[in-house]
Amino acid sequence: MKQNEALFSVQDLHVTVEDKQVVKGVTLEIAAGSKTALMGPNGSGKSTLANALMGHPAYTITAGRVFMKGEDITDLPAHEKAKRGLFLAFQYPVAIPGVSVANFLRTAVNARFGRDVPIREFRNELLEAMKALDVDPSFAGRYLNDGFSGGEKKRIEILQMAMLKPGVMLLDETDSGLDIDALRTVSEGINRIAGPENGVLLVTHYQRLLDYVKPEVVHVFMDGRIVKSGGPELAHELEARGYDWIEREVFATEGN
Amino acid sequence: MATRIEPGTTDPKARPKADVSIGDDYASRYGFSDPEQYFHKGAKGISHEVVEMMSRMKKEPDWMRALRHEALDIFFAKPMPKWGDQEILNSIDFDDIYYYIRPMELQGKTWDDVPDYIKKTFDRLGIPEAEQKFLGGVSAQYESEVVYHSIREDLEKLGVVFLDMDTALRERPDIVQKYFGTIIPAADNKFSALNSAVWSGGSFIYVPPGVKVEIPLQAYFRINAENMGQFERTLIIADKDSRVHYIEGCTAPIYSTNSLHSAVVELIAMEGSYIRYTTIQNWSNNIFNLVTKRAVAHKNATVEWVDGNIGSKLTMKFPCVYLVGEGARGEILSVAFAGDGQHQDAGAKVIHAAPNTTSTITSKSISKGGGRASYRGLVKVHPGATGCKVSVQCDALLIGDRARSDTYPTMEIAEELVQVEHEARVSKVGDEQLFYLMSRGLTEDQARLLIVNGFIEPFTKELPMEYAVELNRLIELEMEGSVG
């Protein structure tokens, strides 16, 4: 596939954090209408990759390019990426005290689409999205992530995703901290938002989210690199056997 | 001390106290027979002569004239405060200030004299032209006549007195004399002494027993050069079980070439009553804003100060509540915004002098660029004031590496059976917060503004809608181009 045909394309990306090389050459593509999982153990650098793709200023892209619908977005600031439809659901969403969920979302929706969405239209859409994600309407007036439980924060991330209608969704450990009911609700939300026009990258340690949100492609990420790729069966294998065997396999290959 | 004594004035220290007789022979002593003529000359500086002329021109009763003279002696005798921002404080030139400006006459100032940055801010805030001229100190009066008159009629039916202080002194001398200066005597501090000597304008409110004033009373509807003057004097008395909310100020910058603003505000909340006093002030950044505000809350009464300070060169303002009756409650909620070259020295004082009294202090400050915000607070619990609850929370937000914040909390607790909470936090607009919001499409400026507006939200939500909207717009202007 040529770069301008892919919805989202990462080519040989290198990222440093405080001069330490964390992502060491990642190449991957996300096609429209597809779901891709990026699985890796803790500390492998997968969160760094997700944040760097979104444009976190603390993470420096030292080499490689990122394309979205053929456009080079590598060096764009985060808000420009967001306007083009890139979305990162955070592993640890920060609190913004004093700013209500509704007020924040309205600002974000207006920024994303570059127009003032009428208040009534916005309200109806918000209430609908909240209902679908089983979020109590009172959350509209609560301060963003301020005093929210882990599960509530994750739901609100998906709520934001529903409202911002992104083209490419990066989900960073969205399953962590969720009980089984919340996991199901959140997964249903993701599946509802995912469609033929957009693509999903699921960044996760565990396979359990993948029971609900089913990827076509699974990459195994270790030590800043994709070391193995396959279909959904690879995720099950990881669940059953852990990451060690892949590590040995990789070492063996490198040893040759 | 930069105070000048007018030639021909006797040494203040040698003057007998309360020298009322000064009024009887002022013409021969000072060589002026006509106060109008005196002020027409546009005299700067402070003296007994100025006080005498001013009081005569206002046709005040003898007791007030005597009070002014006595206060002026106290002002002369008291040294400058030895605390606070000494560098800025000691740069006040008391000789270079007009202490009395005749109403309707503003020393021939024109619109051209108003600095461009002030005009620009007016435009961007969408202030109507007539009001711009007033706020710029070019026109003496701005009144929303229609609104004000209908409000006044409703109030009169309830027996509520809502007048400017000069009119109150003429029309309700009995009640003014009874309470004036009882909460903040002239001798309280150097600036309360100065205000007592040269006060003009301000508001007077009396709410009869049991009357609940449902709409906020706004000085905004009745502002004129005196009301919004340099030395206004406000006195509010809420009689038993009554209720009133007073709002003064506006978010538009107030420009004056006269660099000192020194007001005195006294509140008296009788048993079971409720007073809320909301201020938003945005002085132009050449102004020294040195204000004394104090309230007394009697049994089961509540006093709330809601105080927003933007602008000025130096603000020193510490709204105070004396909780003197059992079950009284005091709340002080303040926001200060210190931009480049500004020092907001604000805070709160609460004195628990009776059992089962409650106080809550919430102070929020934002320092930007080279701005400095200080919280200075005093909480005092007298012996025997058992069962008191005190909660103090100070939050400072710093924007930029040069911004500064200091906290000077003092607690004097002379009683064991009290519950005291104190929390102080200094934070910066966090990179993670900025990134989070930017990842949703907000520019860095939009993100920072949202965080700042969120920070002051506990304050903003206490304001009437139109003030809250204005304040957010003003913060937006203040935040423009700020680099974190």
Characterise the protein shown here.
- The complex is a heterodimer of chains A (256) and B (484).
- Chain A is of the alpha/beta class and 256 residues long.
- In chain A, 36% of the residues lie in helices and 25% in strands.
- In chain A, a hairpin with a 2-residue loop joins strand 1 and strand 2.
- Chain A is globular.
- The mean pLDDT of chain A is 92.
- Chain B is α/β, with parallel strands linked by helices.
- Chain B folds into two domains: 12-96, no CATH class; 131-479, no CATH class.
- Helix content of chain B is 28%, strand content 30%.
- Chain B has helices at residues 26-30, 35-40, 48-57, 62-77, 86-89, 116-125, 129-135, 145-158, 165-171, 173-179, 190-198, 431-438, 444-455, 457-460, 465-479, and strands spanning 161-164, 203-207, 217-218, 233-238, 243-249, 260-261, 264-269, 274-283, 288-297, 302-311, 314-317, 320-323, 329-338, 343-352, 358-368, 372-381, 388-399, 404-413, 418-428.
- In chain B, strands 1, 2, 4, 6, 7, 9, 11, 12, 14, 16 and 18 form an eleven-stranded mixed β-sheet that branches. In chain B, strands 3-5-8-10-13-15-17-19 form an eight-stranded parallel β-sheet, with no helix packed on it.
- In chain B, helix 12 crosses helix 13 (444-455) and helix 13 (444-455) crosses helix 15.
- Chain B is globular.
- Chain B starts with 25 loop residues before the first helix and ends in a 5-residue tail after the last helix.
- Mean pLDDT of chain B is 83; it is low at 1-22, 140-147 and 221-228.
